[in-house]
## 1
Amino acid sequence: MKLPGKTVERLSEYRRTLLGCLEEKKNFIFSHELAARLHITAVQVRRDLMLIGYSSVLRKGYDVRELIETIGTIIDSEVTLNVTIIGIGNLGRAVAGYFRGKRSKLCLVASFDTDPHKVNKVISGVRCYPAPEMENIIRELDIRIAIITAPADSAREIAAEAVRCGIKGIMNFTTISLVVPSWVYLEEYDMITSIEKVAYFVKENKI
Amino acid sequence: MKLPGKTVERLSEYRRTLLGCLEEKKNFIFSHELAARLHITAVQVRRDLMLIGYSSVLRKGYDVRELIETIGTIIDSEVTLNVTIIGIGNLGRAVAGYFRGKRSKLCLVASFDTDPHKVNKVISGVRCYPAPEMENIIRELDIRIAIITAPADSAREIAAEAVRCGIKGIMNFTTISLVVPSWVYLEEYDMITSIEKVAYFVKENKI
């Protein structure tokens, strides 16, 4: 069963929130509590968990550890998926920081850059390779996912090259929309869109 | 008329794409071309533009400059909105980079940090103030929007302080979900959710 993208997003958010609960030593949570933390409805939470076959709600709520594990069996790969960051500037380094010790089934194994001051160094915990070596390294390290954090004007070229090298999923953080073949999964995020949305509602609220 | 959030997001994306067209010296665009660049349908594009009262489609498509201007009158504030970035690490610097010379109605006027090596310096084109001065600076510079790029464990405290200082809109890039009063607009983005979504579809496509 392939889940809708929005459901996968919410499952990922549930897990993140549940991991936060563990840090707070909170071992049980009700659907309405989980919902409130994510600004959605309890009905939505229950529907999503039903969809992945999770129904063991106790009197004191869901068992946080068990639910984290169940979500993992659904959204994580059984084998580790290797990831690369292309463009290790400020944004690339920020993304690299999120990987450290956090997602056991996603492994950041390489970054690429064209800057001679960066290549062949370990930056934010991951080795940076020269961009022209992309093909060799992607195949050698069996990298499946590319996160593009390079300057916008190089994004199309980089994506085409990544696809040619066998990348199967692309996360595009540049401000340019990409086009990829149907067998490659593409997700795009442009932070300016989110910031403009905030500005719009601040303006409309006349506050 | 207050537009739905998703419509505002798309209008922002249309503008970004149209600005890209100008750089390519493309002065006219059909709805289906704009739609294709954003992986949505032409019907969606036409519906959104109808909603904002734009209907002047010519034989050769929409006039790119005119459409950029129309979108601006809808989503931009008439007066400049001042913005701050709280936490000027890698992610904060990446966000600051996006502002430079790009959004005339959004002005990045200050950043805040607790690191003594950063405060009272200009970082990524914006002056970094010590976090304890937040209240004074936010009021003095009339800052309305705060972008939180600080470490997750300080996000709740920072948001509470920002709200107390009169911030009306928050863009939260940390991995912690926030709760804000009803008069503050909150938008949240966690990059790990997007990356986990890519991983899920790579896994499910068995590629």
Note: Chain B has two domains: 5-75, 81-192.
## 2
Amino acid sequence: MRKCCVRRVVIAGGGFGGLYAAKALRHTPVEVTLVDRRNFHLFQPLLYQVATGSLSPGEIAAPLRSLLRDQKNTRVLLGEAVELDAAGRRLILADGAVPYDSLIVATGARNHYFGHDAWQADAPGLKSIEDATHIRSRLLYAFEAAEREPDPELRRAWLTFVIVGAGATGVELAGALAEIARDTLRGDFRSIHTDEARILLLDGADRVLPPFPEQLSSAAERSLVHLGVRPRTGVRVTEVDREGVTIQTMQGGERIATRTVVWAAGITVSEFTGIVAKATGAQQDRLGRILVNPDLTVPGHPEVFVIGDAANLEWKGKPLPGVAPVAMQQGRFAAAVIASRIKGRGGAAFRYLNKGNLAVIGRASGVADFGFLRVHGWPAWLLWLTVHLTYLAQFRNRVLVFIRWGFQYLTFDRGARIISMGANDPGDRAGGSG
Amino acid sequence: MRKCCVRRVVIAGGGFGGLYAAKALRHTPVEVTLVDRRNFHLFQPLLYQVATGSLSPGEIAAPLRSLLRDQKNTRVLLGEAVELDAAGRRLILADGAVPYDSLIVATGARNHYFGHDAWQADAPGLKSIEDATHIRSRLLYAFEAAEREPDPELRRAWLTFVIVGAGATGVELAGALAEIARDTLRGDFRSIHTDEARILLLDGADRVLPPFPEQLSSAAERSLVHLGVRPRTGVRVTEVDREGVTIQTMQGGERIATRTVVWAAGITVSEFTGIVAKATGAQQDRLGRILVNPDLTVPGHPEVFVIGDAANLEWKGKPLPGVAPVAMQQGRFAAAVIASRIKGRGGAAFRYLNKGNLAVIGRASGVADFGFLRVHGWPAWLLWLTVHLTYLAQFRNRVLVFIRWGFQYLTFDRGARIISMGANDPGDRAGGSG
């Protein structure tokens, strides 16, 4: 099947970067192999909605094979990249090897605990479908445990929720959780009032949503407080365990008794990124991201592209952020470089088109930063809705998601409130994924 | 809160029996406590649709608290019944005790391997949400593994699916799986043709759907064969392991190489049913079901009701089957007995109203037996659809399910095709729940 003169493009990772690279190679005379550990593309920006019971996993996941079904030059392989033979140009999988002429590394990011990996069990992060269903189980279980707890102090600990990190994910989680407590679960319990839940949103910076302009951070903070969230900024977490969180503030140390902590504070690259760096001699930054050339290739290896969360490319004085639009644009760019090389032309430098920065805070509120235009409140929320439905459209789930959101908006209810059984049990009983 | 003269009704289990008992006690002057290990009611008849990727778990599960939110005399407890103090009239949970004046045991059924519990790992059954997502992962993973397998014999084993048990669950699973192979996945793969998949449906009886009249069994068999399923009846499974299934037929022993086996052959009662039998001195049948009085109480314990799959009540010469309508009617009946006792009246005997027996076979085919009326083909399928949507209506998911089914009917696609990571990995890689 493979001919000598056909370029074999191998893409590691089916997230926004890898998927958009594959799609952009649709009409290029190459053979594309997309390798992913999972059989689906995940719409990560809506993962917090699974964690808070608004959406089901299937609504934000689409099988990679379906998405690329009609693209005849492309095949999808379920497999895990474990080594890179950079000299022999082969991607080594756990059970085989795939030769390439061009390699696009798009293996994304994972949670980062800044040297405190032991915290992971008590403060799960939100990167995968399993993370989301696990967090969903823990959030919902906390209310169940509080309902049964006779000791007022312990009940208060069960009704205290700590979200570490007030970036977009942390803010969106906190807003959704406040709505669960105030609206969704209202009247469901007999011994507790769910609106007594304390939702603390911690961040080391001096304001929420640090990447946004100050004016929008303030607006977001007001919206959060209005929903019942307590943002606490300038706070450093020094300890996380089963029974609480210890923080360091300007005023000294403080202990918060809680049974439910969610980690939204930091990400690092996938393990495979380190393997690529080692195999190619590329440099990595503090977070493990590979420093790439302006055309997104690895220095000395023009056939190896690194894109999305795995790459560090300076833009206007600082590294591009790890968000979906960067990954999508870089995926399309890497595909374009490969296509122009086939035509014998050289590559240009990647240029980022910033389409704006959005975060949503509960029902009908949000912040949006387009540089020239800054809005908050319901107009930002409407924008957020429009943008996300537009992107989701490609995954055929748009109508379902729209209907579910419509329902929820009208009824304050959430359709996917399952506490599932699994390996990591909150309260020794229920948890895991489902 | 509790007064001496208020009757405390405790219901163990929030399936069809327990939920309908609780709902029927809505206007009765009692205090109802519904205890379940899980926080949701599961619409079990559609579990096979989760296992085959048509529906998401959240679409057939509804939080018990929501379903009973407005019923002020009822509280829901998340907890596991581990003991019964029949003399002291207390239900003992893993972490506490609940006193009762009346107890309704509605703890349902679980998979039964007839003494071969070791088969469970290689032949998962379909009783819980986790079972369903695990089976979904295994079915989908088998196609992925086949796509990558160079050895034709092993590829054939990956593309061979064995369903043990040709009752309604087995038939519905087989039909849906045949459609996945023929339609849903068509064109998704590059190395395999998914319609080469062999789907074997085994049963020890001499025909599929043994509880149905022969004429409908024959119609169902024709529909299955038309879809590409190979029913094999009069077959006894003697061994299940990682690499295949050994069967005994009239012609002797036979080995089927397969990596994917689903167990739909038998059920037994929950462990708690045995505890109830021991504590009350009640008799159990071969499958563990408690032999109950005509009013569904345990002999010698008029305050203990056993209903649904946990009970054995003879009706027209044989025990009532373990299906949702029996459990629902028995739940309502137990509630009525409790209500009439409060008014000082005695109890009548439970009478089963058989509303018919339905099974669906893929798109637009099915069988329906109403005694006086027997239909098959699309009219039976339409009936099935109507009945299930009507019952689902109560769980607010009706519209979503209807839309998803509509989509799927028109597009041959399935929205919830996630292979998730978990403890029980098919092919050492992907599996578990999600």
Note: The CA atoms of residues 51 and 136 of chain B lie 4 Å apart.
## 3
Amino acid sequence: MTASPRTVRVELGDRSYDILIGPGLIASAATEIAKRLKGRRMAVITDNNVAPLYLDALMDGLASVGIEAVSAILPAGEKTKSFEHLIPVCETILGARIERNDAVIALGGGVIGDLTGFAAGIVRRGSRFIQIPTSLLAQVDSSVGGKTGINSPHGKNLIGVFHQPDLVLADTDVLDTLSPREFRAGYAEVAKYGLIDKPDFFEWLEKNWQAVFAGGDARIEAVAISCQAKADVVAADERENGQRALLNLGHTFGHALEAATAYDGTRLVHGEGVSIGMVLAHQFSSRMNLASPDVAKRVESHLKTVGLPTSMDEIPGTLPPAEVLMDAIAQDKKVKGGKLTFILTRGLGEAFVADDVPASEVLSFLKEKHPA
Amino acid sequence: MTASPRTVRVELGDRSYDILIGPGLIASAATEIAKRLKGRRMAVITDNNVAPLYLDALMDGLASVGIEAVSAILPAGEKTKSFEHLIPVCETILGARIERNDAVIALGGGVIGDLTGFAAGIVRRGSRFIQIPTSLLAQVDSSVGGKTGINSPHGKNLIGVFHQPDLVLADTDVLDTLSPREFRAGYAEVAKYGLIDKPDFFEWLEKNWQAVFAGGDARIEAVAISCQAKADVVAADERENGQRALLNLGHTFGHALEAATAYDGTRLVHGEGVSIGMVLAHQFSSRMNLASPDVAKRVESHLKTVGLPTSMDEIPGTLPPAEVLMDAIAQDKKVKGGKLTFILTRGLGEAFVADDVPASEVLSFLKEKHPA
Ligand SMILES: NC(=O)c1ccc[n+]([C@@H]2O[C@H](COP(=O)([O-])OP(=O)(O)OC[C@H]3O[C@@H](n4cnc5c(N)ncnc54)[C@H](O)[C@@H]3O)[C@@H](O)[C@H]2O)c1
Ligand SMILES: NC(=O)c1ccc[n+]([C@@H]2O[C@H](COP(=O)([O-])OP(=O)(O)OC[C@H]3O[C@@H](n4cnc5c(N)ncnc54)[C@H](O)[C@@H]3O)[C@@H](O)[C@H]2O)c1
Ligand SMILES: [Zn+2]
Ligand SMILES: [Zn+2]
């Protein structure tokens, strides 16, 4: 007996699509796909952590509805988001002779989703694409919105395309096998939606976070609210010219920290960088007299309670000096004519885009938080 | 004293752009760019044939209007359209710290244009892009319309994106240094526009082709008419869902021949494949009782007169058997649910999209034209 999944629709004209959220969706994935797509050939891309847990179930399901599928298993981890792995994924898709109605399926976390979406976006100048996100971060963030890409030695996500999926299937049960650390990392993005413009949701999380971690209805609720929040922003601003930038709350600092730790997941994973980055963004906002220091303290306290890192000195190993972090920030995407764009806040759930933040202020703030 | 260049506008809403056509445009390129783009940083990508001829003039011009530019020189030839060369081009662009108003410039033939356009399309999920096409084929075809990409072991142009340029500068003088063979190859695409739907233009070419080869006003006229023809099709159907497919006249056969010769430019260059492909498409149309055999003879005769190959047995070396050519055709982009899509014709300048051509007919036609 399966309850029918919750549906969030991403409104993008003739490229609109559904996000289904609920328990047991891997088992019914093939049926949901066959309901919506006419294709008879698919290529499934996954990683070596997810494959032993869920690949067979998905492949069996596809076979049972008459879809011929091939699969490729990549090494898990951020380093997989590279040309080195993109190339064989493109060749796998081409080798599967995917035609116009067929699709490429990403089964995994944000790494698999970003890489596979990019491959789907460039094979035959754009192929159909289905996201089956298996990490919390991927379910509430990376699988929704069409941003895809890989990393470059020059920085994270610097190479990619906008390529919207045709369908997203978020099975909330699969999060049970996610490591607690990865679950917490994804939770940072859930909290982010509260901090952007939903103070009530943040308050609800402060009270119900344990139930979200445990599974069941609270988890489905949190995933659905997060997906809806992201879907709303994406529908309003697909190409990130304006409001979509708010989703980068915590990310400018976070990306710099990920670069500074060479994307080494044993030291820092994306959501942890975002957690520290959100705390820094709130502290910087209070330093700039935009928000009360109490807000930063409240944010820090909740993220600490769920077990997330909230300051740079919790990152194991040695961080480069503030000047080097600053350099990484300047090479980040959100730069216009030399000036820095940051997401700052005026209070709890009152984030805004500040596009003329003086680099000197950021540097002295970083030096204060991270003395060499 | 320079006459002002002719302008063809490609109408694509807020992504509309100008194609300037005329003599001496490399010399005034920087001025034309500075008139239209605010960027102060550019990355110029070219090849080792074009660089010694035109790179200095372009770089000097850019410096003289205050644009800081870096350049990268790639090996000339179709094999350069590969991931192997795409990767360092992306890194060059990122290393140049190109920001939102800056641009990537392709200076070269279709190979450089396709590869550089693809890199511009994926760096930071899309960067501004200027085409300075230096081959006839690039001026009348590949630089206009936004198709970019590279080849895969599975076939030509199978990996890429749609990415429109912001400006195209076609200097008709630079065609003087193009080898006669490459000029003829580009001329095949010029003739193609006549054969699609401009019988008068084809007739004009039959009379004036020597003047087009010689340079001067007839050449400018032929390039401008060709660009306008392509611009019209692109404006009507940017993503090749319908009429844009007509531009593939001669290309399904042509691509198969290019694949069969392993993209070895000493044996066959793109425009030569198109020339043979157009003759085959006309012959096949007459075999299918769609058009009179006289049309095929007239097309063959004109292409032969200008010095283009018009049959498979003119390709040096051994071609694989018809079955292998057929396989390459089936892997080409224009396949829907196993059925073959071809551009056929009902008469001179009366091409149309035929989307249910029986594979068996194509195979026996190929066997007839190319007995093993
Ligand atoms: N495209 C976007 O809009 C967007 C947004 C946010 C983040 N991202 C990207 O997402 C990536 C991070 O995503 P992530 O945190 O999912 O990383 P990830 O894909 O590396 O997954 C984290 C780890 O969990 C494992 N895993 C995934 N699902 C599992 C499951 N159900 N059970 C057991 N193990 C499982 C993975 O194998 C991996 O080891 C980053 O590269 C980031 O840049 C993209
Ligand atoms: N994107 C599109 O819509 C589109 C359309 C048609 C063709 N194409 C692609 O274009 C490519 C073929 O283009 P091409 O024929 O220009 O090939 P090319 O870029 O290889 O140029 C042909 C040769 O001429 C040389 N050359 C170029 N300009 C010169 C000049 N002014 N003087 C001296 N030498 C010069 C080049 O170095 C090269 O050796 C193919 O890869 C084809 O797939 C793309
Ligand atoms: Zn994130
Ligand atoms: Zn062509």
Note: Chain A has two domains: 6-174, 180-369.
